[in-house]
Design goal:
It comes from Sinomicrobium weinanense. The chain is α/β, with parallel strands linked by helices. Helix content is 45%, strand content 12%. The radius of gyration is 18 Å and the shape is globular.
């Protein structure tokens, strides 16, 4: 399936059983909710997917299970976050064999690579896979920025197609469009900046709170792209306190609590993460509870 690199692509959470195994039953409940809402792809093994805690075998199992669940309705994309170029290439090969149809690739982990090293890292991965690639550009969390000049080099490789734009500088959407036009698809990767990014011309949204609120997320995207800005903005303003939960170091715990509240997930996380407790837990639960009380009715966004 050719990936269009547009629309809403949830960075899904990984579900765990009480005894810390993959919980594919509850995982499928969430995947089906995403498909019913009208998402454009499923992204596995990102930060929200607790990728750093998953074994290689678990990642493979997740890819194969998700491919089976979506039944070609949308593409399945797996995140690559590795410390060495060799391991990243091995991971890409395995993902392709397991049925993934695209890759989201972070820069080298732990080592703060130079611009030249970062370009070489992404380039070697791209040269060693036939899968299309979305570069994850998040200098706030990963301390490496992929600049426009670096993208100029990377886009010489045909299978580098998109960027998950998480610089938190909305103006960067315009800079990328001015420089690369349609050659580079842009997906916002920061929930509280998604509406602004879409209006600036972003093609899609790699979303987090979509894991708990898939219909509202897709509705905002569809309405914004259809020019029904006022309707999209009304939902987005309601959504904003929830979207801010994506900016916390405990974003996984936050979003999993929201999934529990909407009936499409569980709270289980994998150590060293622990479920929220005390005042912080009550604060997050209050945000979720307040939002559910005023949850908006949605228009027939699917037919836009």
């Amino acid at each position: 399936m050719a990936i269009q690199w547009k629309g809403v692509m949830p960075a899904v959470t990984t579900k765990f059983t009480d005894d810390d195994k993959l919980d594919l039953k509850n995982f499928e409940v969430n995947i089906q909710a995403q498909l019913e809402a009208g998402v454009s792809g499923i992204i596995l093994g990102g930060t929200l997917g607790e990728a750093s805690t998953l074994t290689d075998d678990e990642k493979g199992e997740l890819v194969r299970a998700t491919v089976d669940m979506v039944k070609k309705e949308v593409p399945v994309i797996i995140n690559i976050a590795e410390q060495t170029t060799r391991k990243a290439i091995e991971t890409a090969h395995k993902a392709e064999k397991d049925g993934a149809e695209g890759l989201m690739v972070l820069p080298p982990m732990r080592y703060k690579a130079t611009d030249r090293e970062t370009v070489a890292y992404f380039s070697e991965i791209a040269k060693n896979t036939s899968l299309p690639i979305m570069i994850y550009n998040n200098p706030v969390d990963y301390k490496i920025e992929v600049t426009l000049d670096m993208f100029e080099e990377l886009l010489k490789l045909n299978n580098i197609r998109a960027v998950k734009e998480s610089t938190r500088d909305v103006a960067n959407v315009t800079r990328l469009i001015n420089r690369f036009g349609e050659r580079l698809k842009i997906l916002c990767g920061v929930d509280p900046l998604a509406f602004e990014s879409l209006l600036a011309g972003a093609d899609g949204w790699v979303a987090g709170l979509v894991d708990a609120f898939p219909r509202e997320t897709v509705a905002i995207y569809k309405l914004a792209k259809a020019g029904r800005i006022g309707e999209a903005l009304e939902i987005y303003r309601w959504f904003n306190p929830l979207l801010d939960l994506d900016l916390s170091p405990q974003l996984v715990q936050n979003i999993k609590l929201a999934e529990v509240a909407t009936g499409i997930g569980t709270e289980n996380v994998r150590a060293p993460r622990l479920p929220l407790v005390g005042e912080e837990r009550q604060r997050v639960l209050q945000v979720i509870e307040d939002s559910l009380k005023t949850r908006p009715a949605l228009p027939d966004y699917k037919n836009l």
